[in-house]
Design a protein that fits this description.
The protein has a four-stranded parallel beta sheet, covered by helices on one side. The mean pLDDT is about 75. The longest helix is centred in the N-terminal third of the chain and has 15 residues. Strand 1, helix 1 and strand 2 form a beta-alpha-beta unit. The chain contains four helices and four strands; from the N terminus they run E-H-E-H-E-H-E-H. It is globular. Helix 3 crosses helix 4.
Amino acid sequence: MTELPSYIVLAGTTGRCGLSVHTIDWARALAAAGYPVTLIAVQKDYFSPYLKDSAVRVVHLPLPDNASFYETFRIWSKALKPFPAQRAIYPRGVGGSSSLSILAALRYRYPRL
């Protein structure tokens, strides 16, 4: 039996909006299908209350507002390292789909979906 690939969802939003709901739907659907899923919530974590009854692991990553490019990249790299995944999902939005998160994910060779 083959092992299912794991997913990391890089989710970020600075306010409640429809984008969060779609991100939650993605994570919940993957987890319901048996895939290991880790969702990294950037800035504010609106996701935990909605995913507490699912198998999705939610990690909160509060980024400093005035951090330098290098410091933000270092924070992203450090946050991604403990959660190896075969695939990464980048919903559109603030924080999760920033160029820095994409660069950090490429460092660990996560394919972008």
